[in-house]
Specification:
Blueprint (H helix, E strand, L loop, with lengths): L2 H89 L3 H21 L2 E3 L11 E7 L9 E6 L2 E3 L2 E4 L1 E6 L1
Parallel strand pairs: 2-6
Antiparallel strand pairs: 1-4, 3-6, 4-5
């Protein structure tokens, strides 16, 4: 009979240990859930901050584009004024003044665009497919094959980007 009370004691101890283990498990589970909730809250805050950043960056880009357009329009206003003066001269049939007015407008417009970084693409020499567009090729005496013979439409760059390639006729 000495063994039987001992088995009962072991069973009681096991039940007590199980009860003790369950309590820390519940506490650990609650602590883990609290940490998970903290992480979720942090993640939601970061997501909201990033969304606000994207909206602010888009707004800044729009404002920058608006300011750039405003600056260009301010540069082109004198050109518009010059065109109006040239049209007034055309109404008075003063051809010399009209020609001078058109030259003035051309120069003012070219200067305004040059200030913005516009440059003309050179079309002298060999054909370059990166900056030229060949519309025709024809035989030419005294010209090397691939040489630009004639420019049909000027090409332009804005900074280092080609806005419009020069349209040319190339020697065969």
């Amino acid at each position: 009979m000495t063994e039987e009370p001992r088995i009962e004691e072991q069973e009681q101890d096991a039940q007590a240990e199980a009860a003790e283990e369950e309590e820390p498990l519940e506490e650990r589970l609650a602590a883990a859930e609290a940490r998970a909730q903290e992480h979720l809250t942090d993640l939601q805050r970061v997501a909201a901050d990033f969304d606000n950043y994207k909206k602010r960056a888009a707004r800044d880009r729009e404002q920058l584009a608006a300011r750039a357009a405003e600056r260009l329009v301010k540069e082109l206003l004198p050109v518009l004024d010059d065109l109006e003066r040239a049209l007034e001269a055309a109404n008075e049939h003063e051809e010399a003044k009209l020609e001078d007015g058109v030259r003035l407008v051309h120069r003012a417009l070219a200067d305004a665009l040059a200030k913005e970084g516009l440059t003309e693409i050179e079309a002298d020499g060999a054909f370059d497919p990166h900056v030229h567009e060949a519309l025709l090729s024809q035989p030419a005496d005294g010209a090397d094959a691939g040489a630009v013979l004639q420019v049909l439409q000027k090409g332009y760059r804005l900074g280092d980007r080609v806005l419009r390639p020069a349209r040319v006729i190339v020697a065969e």
